[in-house]
Amino acid sequence: MSDPARPDADLLATVSDHADRWFAGGSAPGFAWGLFRDGKLIGTGMLGHAGADGAPPTEHTAFRIASITKSFTAATALALRDRGQLDLDAPVTDLLDWLVGLDVPDGAAPPTVRMLLSMSGGLTKDDPWADRLEALGDDEFRAMINSGVRFGAWPGTRYAYSNLGYALVGQAIEAAAGRPFPAVARELIIDPLGLDRTGFDVRMGDPIATGYARTGRQWEPQPHTAPGAFSPIGGLFSTVVDLAAWAGWLTAAWRPDRFDDDAPLSAATRREMQQIVRAYPPEPYEEHLWGKGYGYGLVIEESGRGRTVSHSGGYPGFGSHLRWDPASGLGIVGFGNARYASPARFCAEALAAVVPDAPEVVPWPETLAAADRVIAAIGAGDLGALAVERDALSPNLVQDGTLAERQAELVSAIDFLGGLLGGEPVGAASDDPSKRSWDLPAGRGVLRCSVSMNPRSPAQLQQLVIKPVLRADL
């Protein structure tokens, strides 16, 4: 956890320590990482070698980013949706007239593009089978699909990570745009953002890292595969610089001082990508999380520290991870040039070590004013005083319990606690601008109070909760 004022040099030193420990584990012959804020690199680290010449990688060395590609695939699909060219809620069989091989379970309709984008299309997890099929041609792909595809669940009912689902999204993109998927992704997303070192083909130019697999004690180079029907699942090459910029552009959608609605995707659509669409359970070591799930091409984690957005990539010869904290704009990208060399734990632990606490929620002025009125009324021993500013009360408040009834409950609660101690409120907090809670010290515990405002402007007090809490229950 980081102090917001902590110098960048300290942040870099912390991340570098985590990186050194990861690389020392021998997971890959080369490792490149970058710490960024709002898409701009704060600093990088380059360890080991990127290829046969023994030279280390640089921030401009292109690595296969594998499944991080899915965020670009999702963005391309959403761009077509926003242009009215792709219906995310249409069954994929309606969009692909050649598709006849889906063995959809009885009582279910074929999955929609939205289901496939959010990993809830009913297909089963297919790593690492799909990772070896990138260069499959369209004719071969269609023949394979139409020979029969089985489902593990009714479409739209549960999460299962499906590369095949994203390959079908790529086919839907091609059908909607009338051009090959890599060309559509480049035209709509990659080129407008100026991601010059991001592409689907090794002909994009050097330097490009060599991928390796361990055979005994030796690192054996792995061939690069060519673009094909499975490119939407993981075919992109990119760099530390470009992925930092990509994450910064997505992050800007949460920062009103930075977002640009003239960009390839509106801020609203970019926020749509970064929200849980299909939830799934966290891992046992992620017990700190409140929730975790898949958005559109991205993994979202929710905790007391706020939202974290990420995606991992694993491919023959490569492992990658991209992760950022929208609230602070801080993020980390890591690449290893070995088969399924996952730097995910490095990125997660290093980012957690440098991200500041979640910013405090700023309540509406009406919320603070209502809390002050309630505190004053309790101090005076008379909740009836709230009636003085009748316009500040939502009509439902007195319908749900008259002020006289609430006054009787207040007297009973204070008596149960052995009286109030007369101190200042403690623990004041808001998890939403419309809400405020606090405790009033009492003889045997605290009087726990909270207010909630309705959504009108100006907002009115719609809920008042006052309950005694014994010290033993705090």
TrEMBL record:
Give start and end of each Beta-lactamase-related domain: 20-352
Superkingdom in the source lineage: Bacteria
Q: Which InterPro entries match?
A: Beta-lactam-related, Beta-lactam/transpept-like, Diverse_Enzym_Activities
Among Gene3D superfamilies, the record links this protein to: DD-peptidase/beta-lactamase superfamily
Protein name as annotated: CubicO group peptidase (Beta-lactamase class C family)
Native organism? Naumannella cuiyingiana
